[in-house]
Specification:
This protein is an all-alpha fold. The protein is built from 9 helices and no strands.
Length: about 260
């Protein structure tokens, strides 16, 4: 009898936790947010295990030390602002993946591009490619050291390949798409272009060697040109965050509307 009452008591505790942590809801938005929350929790655990198992090899600049107060800066690699951008990209990957698998099978390249952006932003793949991989490849092929002043061009080449693959797959499948899927593709392309405006356009502008050699004078307030470089650097970083943030908000709203219509 005592065992029976203990079992009932434990079951009440289980119901108590279930009704508060995994409560029933008719809100599609709450259901989606809950799944994104659980997926994010799992993703962070797997990322931690990944780094523990493989070390810092796959995460470029992972071993660099940083002052904690610098984590608040938008320009800090691995800072809080960059981490928010990574989460927006991860959520966009999940939402676009769900929509692609269930409704828009001809636009799968959108999902893979979000995944590519998330992995690149998390592991700084394009930076490793431009500063390590391509120079080593160049030296093995031509026998002499790659000029660091051409690093910007290698970054552009890096982005060219996934962009061309995505464009090719969309063009091939475009005729098969219905109006809703075309709207899905068009709006995601708008956010990709907006992101490229900041992450490629503004970034390439301020990282040209001539700019740092002739317009930078030591500190933000040492000259007007130095201040503009710092200002554009902030515009680039915050522009990237807002671009992927609004992309996620659009995908979230679109997912909710699509699920409501098909419920």
């Amino acid at each position: 009898m005592i065992k029976f009452f203990n079992l009932v008591h434990k079951y009440k505790i289980f119901l108590f936790l279930k009704n508060r942590l995994f409560f029933n809801t008719h809100s599609i938005g709450v259901k989606i947010i809950r799944l994104l929350f659980l997926a994010t929790f799992l993703q962070h655990i797997l990322s931690w295990l990944f780094v523990k198992f493989f070390g810092d090899y796959f995460w470029f600049k992972a071993s660099e030390e940083i002052v904690k107060s610098e984590l608040l800066s938008a320009t800090a690699d691995g800072g809080y602002v960059e981490h928010f951008a990574n989460m927006y990209l991860f959520w966009s990957f999940l939402l676009s993946g769900f929509l692609t698998l269930k409704y828009f099978k001809n636009s799968f390249s959108i999902t893979f591009f979000y995944l590519f952006l998330f992995l690149d932003d998390s592991l700084s793949i394009h930076e490793r490619f431009a500063s390590k991989i391509f120079p080593a490849f160049y030296k093995n092929i031509f026998g002499f050291t790659f000029n660091p002043q051409w690093t910007n061009i290698t970054e552009l080449l890096f982005w060219l390949f996934p962009l061309l693959i995505m464009l090719f797959t969309v063009i091939v499948s475009y005729k098969k798409m219905k109006l809703g899927e075309k709207k899905f593709v068009f709006n995601n392309f708008f956010f990709f272009i907006l992101l490229a405006l900041f992450s490629v356009g503004v970034d390439q502008m301020i990282t040209i060697p001539w700019v740092s050699e002739n317009l930078w004078h030591g500190s933000a307030f040492s000259s007007f040109s130095s201040f503009m470089i710092i200002f554009l650097n902030q515009v680039e970083e915050w522009g990237e965050v807002f671009s992927v943030g609004f992309a996620f908000l659009w995908l979230y709203n679109f997912t909710c509307l699509t699920q409501s219509k098909n419920a």
